[in-house]
Amino acid sequence: MQKIINKNKNGLKGSVNIPADKSISHRAVMFTSLAKGESIIKNFSKGQDPLSSLNVCKTLGINAEFKNDLLIINSTGKLSAPSSNLDCGNSGTTMRLMSGILAGQNFNSTLIGDESLSKRPMKRVIEPLSLMGAEIKSNDYKAPLNIRGQNLHGIEYISKLASAQVKSCILLAGLNAQGKTNFTEPYVSRNHTEIMLQYMGANISVNNNTVTVKKSELEPRTIEICGDISSAAFFIVAGLIVPNSKIILKNTGLNPTRTGILEVVEKMGGDVQILDKRTVSGEVVGDIQISYSSLNACTIEGDIIPRLIDELPVIAVLATQAEGTTIIKDAQDLRNKESDRIKAVVTELQKIGADIEETTDGFIINGKTNLKGGVEVETYHDHRLAMSLFVAGLICEKPLSINGFEWVNISFPEFEKLFESLSL
Ligand code: S3P
Q: What percent of the chain has pLDDT over 90?
């Protein structure tokens, strides 16, 4: 589907409720599926990726029903052997976290994915799971993953990657393994798994960059899911770069392992204020107020990268509007996302007139540039590319045509409607 974006001339005004966090939604449905009894999930994401996790859990025998805004999960505490392949769709989180859960079951299973997911690296989970005694056959370390359930044992694993998916996979395997499992990462990645496992009564402890779990039974819970800061990011950037904007993004998750974008915006001189900070189901939540600002370039590198990894495509758009040279480094894993996001962002932003260059592990962006538009751009089957280009389109001189805009539905089906509500 092609979408044409016109320049926004009046500024974005008003407030929106940010829809449910994708990462937390995946975890909520998977973890409550492992807990004996009834759990209630409030505000489960309507994105296709979390729905893939929900469908996988249903195929594993879990009873899940929507009642208005509630998702009611009933589980015996045990998963059952699936009668078909488990389809993870486009979702890396579903495949990587489920592989940790399935490796220690007393049945066999096969995880499959769409074309993009079938190209993504799975060695990062297969290798440590194998050290725990898992038996996984793959297509050269890519999907489909054929998992023969085994009795697992704990390991002490030092990961080269700061990846919440790898960490979560190993911790979930550790919940069902003999002995203790230790996972250490170079920098702290998003910690929703640790927070939710603690909230559900698991035997888990955290010491700096190391998380330890022991064999545990989870207890059913009511989990309320906050808004996704990765979805809010598109509004944060739009509010900063569209002249005359002033918007409030309500009920946004502010977990410090996710708020790298707010630190960057502050560093660039953007006007961001946090209102009404509170805690919901163990997660920090608040309202974010954003106003149009003049911005300066900055360097983004090191331990902040895992805290804003999904926001880098839209941060690249932001950097085109900052005075000076913005350098983004240490983000080589961006090449392993739904698309090679370094190549895709550079190729498409160059088409609309940005001064941006590809490096092996990031970008160099010179600003401030007038984005021209008046061209067709591609989304590479990547939802975050589609939304980042939409935001760029709001300040292009001529209309911007985005091909493959429907990929937005992977994480954020409400995206366009919410933007429209701020443009009245
Ligand atoms: C996620 C972790 C991140 C992120 C992805 C969601 C998660 O991936 O990019 O969108 O929910 O754990 P990595 O673990 O590969 O960095």
A: 99
